[in-house]
Amino acid sequence: MTLLAYSPRTANETLCLEYIMNQQNLSRADLATLTGLTKATVSGIIKKLIEDQLVIETGIGESSNVGGRKPINLQFNGQAGLSIAIDVGYNYVNGLLSYLDGEEIAIIQEKPIPLNEDTIQTYFQEIFNTFSKVAPETVYGVVGVVIAVHGPVFHGDILFTPHYNLDQIPFRQIAESLTDYPVYFENEANLSALGEYSFTSTSSSLICVNMHSGIGSGIVQNGHLQVGSHGVAGEIGHQIVVLDGTPCRCGNHGCLEMYAANKVCFEHFATIKAMEYVNAIILREYYRNQDADALAVVAENVRYLSIGINNLIAHYDPKVIVLNSSLYREIPEMIALLQDSLHSHFAKKVILRNSHLQEKATLLGGLVLNLQHFLAIEQVRFTETNS
Ligand SMILES: [Zn+2]
């Protein structure tokens, strides 16, 4: 249930909102200084944002040395509405219902599951039903549904999903038929990058490399996702690392993800050991015991991925590269091995680290995208921490 209807924001409103969201403890006077707007204009905007319940006053700010009236701080009302984000993997569906500040209300994780036109409808219906039962009353209700797709997406259209057939079914119509809320599609690695950028980093540029059955990356610069002219920027899994190598679903031969994806690494180890199934936890146990095959598989993964990361640095010169991979999380020593394999001078200043948000990175990125659409803002920052 919603109490207020959405109203479009003026440019000055979004400017003030961005500053309030991204910096703690701002007063009206601070805002006037930062935005260059007059104090009267800022006061008018804040009055409207408070009436719209998007901004709240948070008591008395720091007392000024010269005395006078103490300023009142302004804060984004993160509980003004709700967000739904759904991550559709090749054998899983995760859903997050949260407040606009990322506070979790409910999370659904279905895995492993078969995904096709029939089952996806069932899982989506289940997610919407469950969330509608537990959704608290807020001013704006659910502001949007963001669906993460494992494949390139351009202007909301799914271009290619090599790991399942979502590009072959009317996925948008299915999703929109199940909910009245606005539905947005985005690539999962792009959303992970947005999530890490907004929740774990203060860097102006960040690249998030997601490794599952394939390898993709999301590139964020100054709050903007860099998607390229056709939506395939950051598809680093499809850079060629082996001449005349293994055929890839994209049409090329020798793509990075055919050699360095988690799934490839697990399957390779399973074949060596004649095992049915291997995941990051199983491989980690062999690695901890100094199993020669595990050490070799890990070294090979690092060697191939280092080529990909080296190329990424040469192309984009990011400040931070975040890895989102169960393999690198379970065996964090692989980060140091990877760093040691980057011999270029270009790579020396780049911070390489594991994801802090882990499996929630994509879902929280979905929340950020919902916020960007709902408030018409670009920069969303919830953290003051470094790197
Ligand atoms: Zn490829």
Task: Give me the secondary-structure topology.
Blueprint: H1 11-22, H2 28-35, H3 39-51, E1 55-60, E2 72-76, E3 82-88, E4 93-99, E5 104-110, H4 117-134, E6 142-149, E7 153-154, E8 157-158, H5 171-177, E9 183-187, H6 188-200, E10 205-211, E11 215-221, E12 224-225, H7 257-260, H8 262-273, H9 280-288, H10 292-316, E13 320-325, H11 326-330, H12 333-340, E14 351-354, H13 361-375
Parallel strand pairs: 3-6, 6-9, 10-13, 13-14
Antiparallel strand pairs: 1-2, 3-4, 4-5, 7-8, 10-11, 11-12
Helix pairs in contact: 1-3, 2-3, 6-13, 8-10, 9-10, 10-12
What this model shows, in words?
- The chain has 387 residues and is α/β, with parallel strands linked by helices.
- The chain folds into three domains: 11-76, Orthogonal Bundle (Arc Repressor Mutant, subunit A); 82-193 and 361-375, Nucleotidyltransferase, domain 5, CATH 3.30.420.40; 205-357, 2-Layer Sandwich (Nucleotidyltransferase, domain 5), CATH 3.30.420.
- The chain is 39% helix and 19% strand.
- It has 13 helices and 14 strands.
- It has helices at residues 11-22, 28-35, 39-51, 117-134, 171-177, 188-200, 257-260, 262-273, 280-288, 292-316, 326-330, 333-340, 361-375; strands at residues 55-60, 72-76, 82-88, 93-99, 104-110, 142-149, 153-154, 157-158, 183-187, 205-211, 215-221, 224-225, 320-325, 351-354.
- A five-stranded mixed sheet has the order 5-4-3-6-9, sandwiched between helices. The protein has a five-stranded mixed sheet with strand order 12-11-10-13-14. A two-stranded antiparallel ribbon has the order 1-2.
- Strand 10 and strand 11 form a beta hairpin.
- Helix 1 packs across helix 3, helix 9 (280-288) crosses helix 10 (292-316) and helix 10 crosses helix 12.
- The longest helix is centred in the C-terminal third of the chain and has 25 residues, at 292-316.
- The chain is globular.
- The model has no long low-confidence stretch (mean pLDDT 91).
- Bound molecules: zinc ion.
- Zinc ion binds at residues 238, 248, 250, 252, 255.
